[in-house]
Amino acid sequence: MRLTLHTDYALRLLMYLAVKPDGRATIREVAETYGISRNHLVKVAHELGRAGFVETLRGRGGGLSLARPAEDIGIGKVVRAMEEDFSLVECFDPQTDRCRISPSCRLRRLLREALQAYMDVLGDATLADLVEKPKPLRRLLALTA
Length: 145
Hints:
Distance between the termini: 36 Å
Shape: elongated
CATH class: Mainly Alpha
Number of domains: 1
Radius of gyration: 18 Å
């Protein structure tokens, strides 16, 4: 399974906010730090806000911050909120399944189990786990304590 850039940027944005000493950042700041599209990051931040992971404050001194403590933000929940489709193969969706061997294929079951194991691992992790040792991340992101 491959995560979309949307989800990748969401996880990176959350990690940035979690390790930033004051916990607040602008989209421009994060986009420049990571060297990613500001326009794409705007959409990501909007979705994270709608899902309750970040808070946004407009105007002077505004920006983004975590909506709750990092230990309360589950990585599996973020991935589920950001990804639109978990259909690894055509036969996962009965509406689009045109595979001739679907009625007796065992691959679908195996892939469903693999996807579930993948999501279980992500479900056991929190944002706090990803930023448990913030000093190296702060150094790489040029953030000062």
